[in-house]
Amino acid sequence: MKQQEVFKAMADPTRRAILKRLQGGSLTAGELGEGFDITSASLSHHFAVLKRADLVRTERRGQHIVYSLNSTVLEDLARMLIDFFPNLGGKK
Amino acid sequence: MKQQEVFKAMADPTRRAILKRLQGGSLTAGELGEGFDITSASLSHHFAVLKRADLVRTERRGQHIVYSLNSTVLEDLARMLIDFFPNLGGKK
DNA sequence: GCAATAATTAGATATTTGTCTAATAATCTA
DNA sequence: TAGATTATTAGACAAATATCTAATTATTGC
Description:
2 copies of one chain form a homodimer. In chain A, 55% of the residues lie in helices and 15% in strands. Chain A has helices spanning 3-10, 13-23, 29-33, 40-52, 71-84, and strands at residues 27-28, 56-61, 64-69. In chain A, strands 1-3-2 form a 3-stranded antiparallel β-sheet. In chain A, strand 2 (56-61) and strand 3 (64-69) form a beta hairpin. Chain A is elongated, with a radius of gyration of 14 Å. At the A-B interface, helix 1, helix 2 and helix 5 of A face helix 1, helix 2 and helix 5 of B. Chain A binds a DNA duplex through helix 4.
């Protein structure tokens, strides 16, 4: 996990919202952008940041690019936080 | 938990190192800064960011300010990640 | 009270980041 | 193949951030 990239990616509310939306399953760039009040160019930028952090994966399907969550990285992140701070309640 | 503040605070490597150092127990601002190659003014800035996110607590002891980890917030963060992404392996 | 020590705040600056418009790339369909 | 659709890249710009030096605040001990 590229820790630095992951944390930076998570630091933006739009990107967290994108990830949240991907919980429900894969979506195309277009679908993913619906309801955000920014241009598709800006969205593409956010997608790129998420990809760089390996938080999302992409696949072309015709004219569309389908985004899906790479939950491994999020798992790693959560685990990292828990390990990192041993007194964090949890059954490790 | 002020999610946005917490994520932003965690996005900087110096601040993560500070938190890590506090795992071992409370430290004064001076002790906390040892080994970082930045000025104490810059460190103070980082401390302020961590305080704003409520990741650390402070207490004056004479001339010193003692910093300690507020692990509650980190707990919340880890829990949030796990809840947020249901398919994250864990026993919730 | 005054000098010394510890830490923060003020002000300046360079870099990074989020956003925009315009241009480009890739694919579909008529 | 030309036009339409979907998405990304390029280039510009404003806002946010990390850093620095200098000034200020708080406290100790002589």
